[in-house]
User: Fold this.
Amino acid sequence: MRYAATIFLVALTGCSGPQTDAKMQGLYESKKEYFSALVTGADCHIEKNKILWRHYVTKSNTACLGLLAKVEADGIGVDPISEGIMVFPSSRNYSSHRKGYIYSAKALAPLYPSLDEHPTGLQPYQMGFKQIDEKWYITYEYAN
Assistant:
């Protein structure tokens, strides 16, 4: 019986959705200098069409991986559609709904006041955005 309860508890926690907007914005605000260093500093060499994952360690990316750890992210890469720099938060869950951060010099759309619930009109694999700073957004995407 204890084994079944453990499986049930793991299943419940493993299928939870992404973090709330407030929690993500709070992390961004508390680690703003590290987020900025990820996208504007010389430590991260982000290649188009390639994601730098935190588990891929080389001498040349050690500083960037340290920044990813500080912002609690697993990876960084260029979004092919918006051409913004995506930061993929560490997640320990499996969900069809994903959230992340994106830095973009150009304005992104569609904007939503909240991404805690599925935004009305957002199609599968289409990103929605919530602006949290001048060039920073929380992203939301879901797989049908």
Observations:
- Confidence is low (pLDDT under 50) at residues 1-15.
- Strands lie at 52-53, 73-78, 85-89, 97-103, 128-131, 136-142.
- The first helix runs from residue 2 to 14.
